[in-house]
Amino acid sequence: MLFGILRPGDTMLCITGKPYDTICPVIGITGEKGQGSLADWGVAYRQVELTADGRIDLAAVETVLKTDKTIKLVYIQRSRWYSLRPSLSVEEIGVAAETVHKHSAAVVAVDNCYGEFVQTTEPVCVGADIMAGSLIKNPGGGLARCGGYIAGKKELVELCAYRMTVPGLGSEVGATLGNNRDMFMGFFNAPHVTGEALKTAVFTAALFREMGFAPTPTADEPRYDIIQAVKLGNEKNLIAFCQGIQKGSPVDAFVTPEPWDMPGYPCKVIMAAGAFIMGASIELSADAPLREPYAVWLQGGLNFHSAKIGVMQAAEAILQIAPDAERAVQN
To answer: Looking at the whole model, is its pTM more than 0.85?
Structure first.
């Protein structure tokens, strides 16, 4: 999406603070030069920090847009990823898009990952020009084996298609490798599966609050994506949580995940994912970088009944290693 729309001399403005770890080298704000990032192609980058309460700073966005006429694309990251800031609602994104369009001709592009089907509308319904996400998360319904989607204004989607295949042909060509049936059936199932993942997240928040930990969001807060973060206080609890999730997974339950170096991350990461589709975060999974504040990010669950077992295994794993005094975490 970014490479399809941006050109040398353009500026990309991110208005949700620093993006998640693995897209930073794509933009060129981390990683080595010469690897084909946007920065290598002459695309500049700016960002606006979120407010103290994790919201888009609309006043700061207005100031930048009024003074920098090179901004071609305004990027919004809907989900929290490896941070504890709140995820964004469709309504908040709509207000931000209106602000951008009032002061600029820039394209409003949304990374919609983890947010699809959580609300009754999507960002392109409220003013975003284009959005993208992964088919091994919400919109794949647990059936799509790979791939992603880009949706929005026709002319922008075509630009992305030209980048994906070849200029002039775009979406008229390209291999599907026999995956269309799984993609369409997964999309059909996606709203229900997303609902199961949300039930799992709410249950996790309630259970770990009772155990003395600090979940975010809490069980009774509105939700705008499927991610459930829990601050676990230390590395030992974090590892135990992920190992418990793996133990309660339908696939590879006998495997014990360990922290390890992962491409694109500056520190060791532990990932639990006993999934039928490799890497499918709409299936029950949990992962975390081994760094402060030692929070874990859980997502998914094809059905609540199975996912509940995994979450309870995670709780049991922590109870086995940590007395009450060590488990309590302040909000």
So the answer is: yes
